[in-house]
Amino acid sequence: MSALSALPFLRPVHLRSPRSSPGGQRRHTLPASEFRCLSPEDAVSVFEIEREAFISVSGDCPLHLDEIRHFLNLCPELSLGWFEEGRLVAFIIGSLWDQERLSQAALTLHTPQGSAVHIHVLAVHRTVRQQGKGSILMWRYLQHLRCLPFARRALLMCEDFLVPFYQKCGFEALGPCQVTVGDLAFVEMQHAVRGHAFMRRNSGC
């Protein structure tokens, strides 16, 4: 069994297909769902969702296709995708960082000795937005990080209007981020990842 498949929060969650009720009526159920780490083969699907989500708002993407492939080759265990009936509907991509705060270099680097997980991007397919999938996926991702012994903190940068969303996910604002992209300025946010021993007692890691 691989280390990733042993993590309880990454085991596939499959919802059963509709069955006939005693009266002959077919009961409606949700599509089969699966959460798993992404692979380089998922890069194009990831980029298509990201491009639609970000270009219309800011004119650019946090990660370009070659950068997505770069991170999914180096640290696939720091990504998480939500698939419904085999189709990617939402994802998170992260990498390791070894400084207290994010800097411009954090946009492209993965530092294996780091203990902070830099969350580069969270995006949801346009057809399933406004359904709470972003917050659910972030919760699953943070649970996954708590099963990784090297992860101590999660860091991200976002625009002001997204701060309330990430606060609801348990992040705290650290103040203005040193990183700028064009004319855009960001708030840096942090989420503490609890100790490994705590998670062994409480989540089966």
TrEMBL record:
Alphabetically sorted, this entry's keywords are: Acyltransferase, Biological rhythms, Cytoplasm, Melatonin biosynthesis, Phosphoprotein, Transferase
Domain N-acetyltransferase: from-to ranges? 33-194
CDD domains, per this entry? NAT_SF
GO BP, one example? circadian rhythm
One Pfam family, please name it.
Acetyltransf_1
According to its UniProt entry, this protein's organism is: Oreocharis arfaki (tit berrypecker)
- Reply yes or no: does the keyword Phosphoprotein apply: yes
| UniProt pathway annotation | Aromatic compound metabolism; melatonin biosynthesis; melatonin from serotonin: step 1/2
**Matches recorded under Gene3D superfamilies:** 3.40.630.30
Broad class of the protein's primary localization: cytoplasm
Q: Which reaction does it catalyse?
A: a 2-arylethylamine + acetyl-CoA = an N-acetyl-2-arylethylamine + CoA + H(+)
Gene (UniProt): Aanat
Query: Where in the cell?
Result: Cytoplasm
A cellular component annotation (GO) from this entry: cytoplasm
UniProt lists the family membership as follows: Belongs to the acetyltransferase family. AANAT subfamily.
Q: State the protein's name.
A: Serotonin N-acetyltransferase
Instruction: Name the top EC class.
Output: transferase
Cross-referenced InterPro entries: Acyl_CoA_acyltransferase, GNAT_dom, SNAT-like
Question: Example GO molecular function term?
Answer: aralkylamine N-acetyltransferase activity
Entry EC no(s): 2.3.1.87
